[in-house]
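Cross-check.
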Amino acid sequence: MTQTPNSNSSPKLTTPNAETRYDITRKDLPLHCPMPGMSLWDSHPRVYLPIEDSANGEYRCPYCGAMYVLVDKP
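Predicted model, tokenized:
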């Protein structure tokens, strides 16, 4: 028997690490990969990324290689 998921039963999650670059803002801090809203079951462990301490406002995830760019630098 095949079950069809109810579209109202859970929020739509994005595929983790589907992109290679993510533009983020200060409201996304503290930054971690995968980010909220991404499904975690098929991704790597959550890792916090200290992008606010980087000199150029960029940080690459050591697990998946996704580049995060802080677009509202002070």
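The first strand starts at residue 21 and ends at 24. The beta strands are 21-24, 32-33, 47-48, 58-60, 67-70. Passed to J.P. for a second look.
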